[in-house]
Amino acid sequence: MELDDEVCLCFHVSKRKLLSYMRINKSRMRRASQLSECGGAGTGCGWCVGYLKRLFAQMNPEAATAEAALAAEPTPEEHRTGRASYLKQKEEG
Questions:
Q1: Exposed / middle / buried, residue 89 (Cβ in 10 Å: 0-12, 13-18, 19+)
Q2: Stretch (H or E) spanning 14
Q3: Which of 20, 54, 64, 76 sits CB 3.0–4.6 Å from 5 for a disulfide?
Q4: Angle between helices 49-59 and 15-24 (to 10 degrees)
Q5: pTM for the predicted model, two decimal places
Q6: What tens-digit pLDDT sequence spans the chain (93 residues)?
């Protein structure tokens, strides 16, 4: 994903906005769920929560999964397609 691609498709929160939010609030960031304070990311359909967790792990030097998180980053199209599948499964039960 590029910096201006939307991570949270419900609230149109870009990767750039999330990274800036984490950089500015680095001293108080303790868990990935705090990213919801950035434009409501992760509080809509829930699809981006996994991505938010990976993004948080990248910014947290103690996170053992940071390197794996970088390798597993989806393309913007994969992210949108995955969300469509996620929402369909959610509707079906």
A1: exposed
A2: strand 13-14
A3: 76
A4: 40
A5: 0.73
A6: 899 999 999 999 999 999 999 999 988 888 899 999 999 999 999 999 999 999 998 887 665 455 555 556 788 888 889 889 999 998 987
Give the residue among 87, 60, 77 at the shortest CA–CA distance from 1: 77
AA letter at 40: G
Q: How far apart are the first and last CA of the chain?
A: 30
Residue 7: partners with Cβ closer than 8 Å, 6 or more residues away: 1, 13, 14, 15, 18, 41, 48, 51, 52, 55, 79
Q: In this structure, is residue 30 part of a structural domain?
A: yes
Residue 1 in any domain: the answer is: no
| Tokens read off for 67 | 């390197």
